[in-house]
Structure formats: structure tokens, C-alpha cells
Design brief:
Collagenase (Catalytic Domain); Heat Shock Protein 90; 4 domains; Ribosomal Protein S5, domain 2; 9 helices; alpha+beta
Length: about 500
């Protein structure tokens, strides 16, 4: 007979602490500083003081936040705290100093709130390989009405090589510059008695501030183009959540003068879609996609204003014609309900743009071109309009403004009038020349365009072999499948090309 006695599940605390710490994108000492600072922000502190005792290898942080009550203080010493959940605050389930347990000689904590005051000593027992803590006498370390004090004595002296007050100031500027700039409740931050100043670079050549509500969420911040080069760590727009810099994100814009562009985008509402490490977002979530599309447009518009938009590479007429042909093919297939989920969050918008329409009194010149669509009305006018033919992906003949890329082989020139109308969105293909970008295809949500990197080795090889139509089509569909998080991606890819072949698109 088997032994049916219930057995306890064993926990390797040493490995658990290491695994928790490894979730973060920085070294152990940085994690200690960044995460304990996050806890002070979560406690609604307005003043945070850090002391670096290089001689004795001691780190101290004290805040005037709300402090902890008895239950919170007990839970604070558990590895998986029940009193703090990720998603409500920036701190990862109350990790804080505990991720340094195995590298500390001790951790002293003293807390004070309206109803409670106590202190503890916390150590990692090397014999039993388990963390242990005990209550100790309070020493009035918290001078304010409420707050929390944490003291950590380093036992791993490899960490001490960067254990300086200047290094800590640089870390705070890198990870909490939005706090230092005054965007959050914290008003004063000190390191060894010296107030920490935010990172700022002057002179500024161009600055744009923004503060708007999008889908019920407040988004604010700024973009700056400086005269002088910016250190790498501060280049580009940085997305901020609850005061902490989560990541640098260019929103797929690849601007000119990128070494002179910086910015902050405060998006606290994205707290729920952070990964466990808080180093990046869950990009497949709908909240991210909608935020990304909005901020891509805001950033793109500003880049246009300061003439920092990247130059569109010149591609030959054959490649342009191939792109237009692929656009029509894909958009035709995507009308099938079987594939509607591929673009349920993108490319389904009704765009407000200037289009050319045939007009006997028009002063501009257009050209007849294959493919049409019926617009839904004039922007700014009364009513919905009677529906005017312009260029699109449906069968028939449309008209577009005469340009170098317009095909003169199809039809004749015709007078047109340029008006703003609402036109149906769809898959549009653009090109970029980015030899340093590892992706061959990506979606630019600002312009609702799928970008193909003409410098990518795979594209260069396909183009040389004359197989670029199929290659481009496959890359685009793969990107749409990934964006839509289709589980049976290979099967869906098979169905798409089966439909494509059955339609027998000319020239494909």
C-alpha cells in the first residue's frame, strides 16, 4: 500500500529570491534601490531620503508615507505579500527590499502609521536557507507623523563597487525622472542630504507638451528636441507608469535627429498590462494597441512639425505597382468573414483625408486609375453626402491626384477637385530603409500603414530573385496574424493563400 500521508511542498527560498530578482532588467543593487523607492511612492510619500554609507556598506531609505498597520507589517515579511497586488501599484507585489535578502547581512525595517508603530530585523539564515525575522525595539527612526524606514547592510561586496551616492542619483534620474520633475506627489528627494535634481538638457530647440484624456484615461507629458546630443539612456520618448520609467519607445517612427530627441509619456492607466518585471508592456493587449496607435499619431504629428520625419526611400515604379497590387489583393480577401479578425483592431477606421474627385471646374489634374471606392461624405459639410467615387480597392475606375507614381498607362488625365472626405481604411503598404532594424515588416499605427524594410537581407534576396510579391504578401500576413494573436496561425496562413490562389489575382 502506498503511503497516503499528506506531505508538505518544499520551497527553496534561496532560489525563489533569486528568481524574483531575475525578473528585473537590472542588477541586484539597482533592483534594491529602484524597488524600495517604488514602495515609498506607493505609500504616498512626499519626501524620500536615501543614505549611502560607503564605509559600512549600508543602504537606508526613509519616507513620510502612510506607513503600515499590524497586518500589513506582518505580511511585509512574506515573500508573496497578500496586502499588495501588482496592478494596483507599481511595486511588484511588495517585493522591495526582500529581493536583496540573500545578499544582505540584515534588513532593518521600522514603520509608523496613525494606529501602529513597530520595527523588525530580517535575515537570511544560511544554515536553514530560509528567511527569518523578529520584532525589535523601535528607535524613532521615522521622525514624521507616519512613514517607513528600511536599512540594508550589504554582505555581497561585489555590489559595493557601484555603491556611491552619485551612482544612486544617476539611477533615480534614469528610472524616476518624472518624479524628480514634479509630476507626482513626491516633492523632495535627498541622497546623503543633497537634494536630487532631475535630468534636464538645455538649450531646447523645440518642445511640445500635451495633456489630454483618451478613452477616459489621462495622458500627459512632453517631447523635446535639443540643440546638443542627448545621452543614450535619455534618448527617445519614455513611457512612465506611476512615476517609474518603464521603457523607451519610439512608436515605430524612426525619426531623424534621434540623438537629440527625448520625452516623457505619463500613462498610469497601463499599470494593468505591465509584465512581471515591469520593464515592458504586454503588447498584445488591446489597451496597449489603442494607446500605441494614439501616441504614435501624436508623436508622428510633432515630428512632422519639426521636420524630423524620416525620408521615405525612393523605390522603383515596379515595386510601387507591386505594392498597390498586393494592397488590393489583401483588402479583397480580408472582406471574407473568415479573415475579418486579422484587422479587427487596425485598418478598419474611417480616415479623414484629402482626396481627389472628378470635377468639371477642378483646377488640379488627376488621372483615372484602376480600383475605386465610394466616400461617405464631405468632412465639415452638412449631411452624409451622396457618395463620390475616389481611388480604392473595389472593382471599377477611380481617380487620384496626378503624381510621379500614378500609372499613366491606364487612363487619361482629368480635372479634379481636392476635398476632405471620409474614406474607408484598409491595408496600405509603405517602405523604409532601416539597415539596423532587425524586423522586416512592422505596423505604423500613426499612419495605418504596414512598413516593409527594403534594407532587410530577406527582402533584398527576394527582390534579387524576383519573388518579392509572394515574399511581401507572406510577411504582411504573418505580421497581421501576430498582431491579432491568432492561435492557429499556420492554418490561417494556409487558408489565406488558398483563398488568394482561388481568386487567381492577375500577375501574382
Amino acid at each position: 500500500m502506498p503511503d497516503e500521508t499528506w506531505q508538505d511542498t518544499k520551497v527553496n527560498y534561496a532560489k525563489l529570491v533569486v528568481d524574483l530578482r531575475d525578473q528585473f532588467p537590472y542588477d541586484a543593487l539597482t533592483a534594491l534601490i529602484v524597488e524600495t523607492f517604488a514602495n515609498s511612492i506607493d505609500a504616498d510619500a512626499t519626501k524620500i531620503e536615501i543614505e549611502i554609507d560607503e564605509k559600512n556598506h549600508v543602504f537606508r531609505i526613509i519616507d513620510n508615507g502612510t506607513g503600515m498597520n499590524h497586518d500589513q507589517f506582518v505580511e511585509y515579511h512574506n515573500i508573496a505579500s497578500l496586502t499588495k497586488e501588482r496592478g494596483e501599484t507599481i511595486g511588484f507585489a511588495g517585493v522591495g527590499a526582500k529581493i536583496f535578502l540573500d545578499r544582505a547581512e540584515y534588513i532593518i525595517t521600522e514603520t509608523k502609521s496613525d494606529s501602529y508603530c513597530n520595527a523588525s530585523e530580517w535575515v537570511f539564515n544560511e544554515d536553514s536557507k530560509t528567511p527569518k525575522w523578529r520584532y525589535i525595539e523601535t528607535k524613532n527612526r521615522v521622525k514624521s507623523r507616519s512613514g517607513t524606514y528600511v536599512e540594508v547592510r550589504l554582505s555581497n561586496f561585489s555590489d559595493c563597487k557601484i555603491f556611491t551616492d552619485n551612482h544612486v542619483r544617476l539611477l533615480l534620474q534614469e528610472w524616476y525622472n518624472a518624479v524628480l520633475l514634479g509630476y507626482y506627489n513626491v516633492r523632495d528627494v535627498f541622497v546623503n542630504g543633497e537634494k536630487v535634481k532631475p535630468w534636464q538638457l538645455y538649450p531646447v530647440e523645440n518642445e511640445k507638451t500635451f495633456d489630454f484624456v483618451y478613452e477616459g484615461n489621462r495622458i500627459r507629458g512632453f517631447f523635446i528636441k535639443t540643440v546638443d546630443d542627448i545621452p543614450d539612456v535619455f534618448q527617445g520618448p519614455h513611457i512612465i507608469v506611476k512615476g517609474k520609467t518603464v521603457e523607451q519607445n519610439w512608436f515605430k517612427q524612426f525619426p531623424m535627429f534621434s540623438n537629440k530627441i527625448t520625452g516623457l509619456v505619463l500613462a498610469d492607466h497601463l499599470i494593468h498590462i505591465l509584465t512581471a518585471s515591469k520593464a515592458r508592456f504586454k503588447y498584445k493587449k488591446r489597451d496597449w494597441k489603442r494607446f500605441n496607435a494614439k501616441m504614435s499619431k501624436v508623436f508622428s504629428d510633432w515630428l512632422s512639425e519639426i521636420n524630423a520625419k524620416p525620408q521615405i526611400p525612393q523605390v522603383d515604379n515596379q515595386l510601387q505597382n507591386t505594392a498597390r497590387m498586393i494592397e488590393r489583393s489583401i483588402n479583397d480577401i480580408l472582406k471574407d468573414p473568415l479573415f475579418s479578425e486579422l484587422t479587427k483592431d487596425i485598418f478598419q477606421n474611417i480616415l479623414k483625408k484629402t482626396v481627389g474627385i472628378k470635377s468639371s471646374i477642378g483646377k488640379d489634374v488627376g488621372i483615372l486609375t484602376p480600383g475605386k471606392q465610394i466616400t461617405t461624405g464631405t468632412v465639415g459639410g452638412e449631411g452624409t453626402g451622396g457618395g463620390v467615387v475616389t481611388h480604392g480597392d473595389e472593382e471599377g475606375v477611380g481617380v487620384e491626384e496626378k503624381s510621379d507614381r500614378a500609372s499613366h498607362e491606364f487612363g487619361k488625365e482629368t480635372p479634379i477637385e481636392k476635398v476632405k472626405r471620409r474614406v474607408k481604411g484598409g491595408i496600405k503598404i509603405g517602405f523604409a530603409d532601416k539597415p539596423d532594424e532587425i524586423k522586416e515588416v512592422w505596423i505604423d499605427p500613426a499612419e495605418s500603414v504596414i512598413i516593409i524594410n527594403t534594407s532587410h537581407p530577406a527582402f533584398v534576396a527576394a527582390y534579387a530573385m524576383g519573388s518579392e510579391p509572394y515574399h511581401m504578401m507572406r510577411c504582411i500576413i504573418k505580421e497581421l496574424l501576430e498582431e491579432a494573436e491568432i492561435e492557429d496561425a499556420e492554418e490561417k496562413m494556409h487558408d489565406f493563400f488558398a483563398t488568394w490562389n482561388s481568386k487567381n489575382q492577375p500577375g501574382m
